[in-house]
Specification:
Largest sheet: 8 strands, mixed
Strand order of the largest sheet: 3-4-2-1-5-6-7-8
Order of helices and strands: EHEHEEHEHEEHEEHEHEHEHEHEHHH
Distance between the termini: 23 Å
Low-confidence stretches: 363-370
Helix content: 40-55%
Number of strands: 14
Radius of gyration: 21 Å
Number of helices: 13
Strand content: 15-25%
């Protein structure tokens, strides 16, 4: 198939969140199986990618820039929902998969251009949708967790096929020294306050805070100031090779303050047999399974300290969690063959339904010209 993944959010390497990582790994698996994949994403100014894209936008006037550094075409635009018609005309996909970052306007424009649309629901921030997904005639839906599917069923009456985020185990599996608590993405919504309080209350335990979302200069200064008095915390830069990060992890800390739709970090760590200490909210319990401890969102810091101490100080308990982590990474619903098959079943169904609509006399499916 010829598949375009589309979002208004920036994409790798400009941002490296869970949705971006999941899309990149999914794209790699699809390309390896002979499918053609492209990505349409938002654009930010900083860095070499932003500079090259700005130059290309001025020179071409197309409304998008394109690069192929990731192994497939990546179209970048200031406003992807405005550029999507031109990208469809230039690349001519069979189906568009819209994701977090105003997916509804992108899907609506795709449908207007006659290209089937599938919404991959990756978060439960409904203000991020850009419209009512139930008002998209003929669109189909995939959810990245049971939690996500239930929230959209309750809010919009949508029926979604559940396809968990795809992982390529070789990108994460590592022989770990089990020497530190790893906290990925030191951001307030990810529970930065909990991580800082834990580090302060447990000065004998080393912590590694690993950047993920881009921090502006002010946010970086503020974070470094808060870490200045914590000798047991190292701030590590974003890494494209997470094996280096999980290679030092004894436990991953995921104290999110928001409803994570699923949670990649606990599963990534499971490939190295590393358990998680996480919030009991959103899709995190689904991701963690038995491979860690969950703390109620309303619990105070004492509950987090108690849970971390149990994981860190009880060797027998810790070993049981490590065994559960290795088993968790082998869950059937996380196996790529099954995930790809489920995804393609939805996409092929959307394409077939679009063809049937044309045969029944619906307007022809044709992308607008650039």
């Amino acid at each position: 198939m010829r598949i375009l993944f589309a979002s208004a959010h920036p994409y790798i390497p400009q941002i490296a969140g869970g949705a971006q990582s999941s899309t990149h790994e999914l794209a790699g698996e699809l390309v390896a199986r002979g499918h053609e994949v492209a990505v349409l994403a938002g654009l930010t100014k900083p860095g070499a990618v932003g500079l090259r894209a700005r130059v290309a936008l001025k020179l071409t006037g197309r409304g998008y820039a394109v690069d192929r550094a990731l192994g497939y075409p990546t179209f970048r635009a200031w406003h992807p929902h405005e550029a999507v018609a031109r990208v469809l005309a230039a690349w001519r996909p069979e189906v568009v998969v819209t994701q977090s970052g105003f997916p509804v306007p992108i899907a609506r424009k795709s449908l207007e251009c006659g290209v089937p649309a599938v919404l991959y629901l990756r978060n439960v921030e409904f203000e991020d949708l850009g419209g009512d997904p139930a008002g998209l005639p003929g669109a189909r839906f995939i959810a990245n967790s049971r939690f996500t599917a239930q929230r959209y069923a309750q809010a919009y009456g949508l029926s979604s096929r559940i396809v968990h985020p795809l992982f390529r185990p070789e990108r994460y599996r590592s022989e770990t020294t089990r020497e530190t608590v790893v906290f990925v993405n030191p951001h307030p919504s990810k529970g930065l306050d909990v991580a800082l309080a834990l580090a302060a209350r447990c000065p004998d335990i080393p912590f590694a805070f690993v950047e993920a979302w881009t921090l502006d200069a002010q946010a970086r200064r503020a974070l470094k100031a808060r870490l200045a008095d914590l000798a047991n915390v190292d701030l590590l830069p974003r890494s494209r090779d997470m094996r280096r990060i999980y290679g030092i992890a004894r436990v991953v800390l995921v104290p999110s303050r928001w409803d994570e739709a699923f949670g990649r970090v606990p599963v990534e760590a499971q490939y190295s047999g590393v358990p998680a200490l996480a919030s009991r909210r959103g899709g995190l319990p689904e991701a963690v399974g038995d491979a860690g401890l969950l703390v109620d969102p309303q619990a105070g810091i004492d509950a987090w300290v108690s849970a971390l101490r149990q994981i860190w100080d009880d060797p027998e308990f810790y070993e049981r969690l490590c065994v559960a982590a290795r088993a968790g990474a082998s869950r059937p619903e996380l196996q790529s063959e099954r995930q790809i098959a489920d995804l393609l079943d939805v996409l092929e169904g959307a394409v077939t339904a679009g063809a049937a609509g044309r045969d029944a006399g619906a307007p022809p499916m044709r992308a607008q010209t650039a």
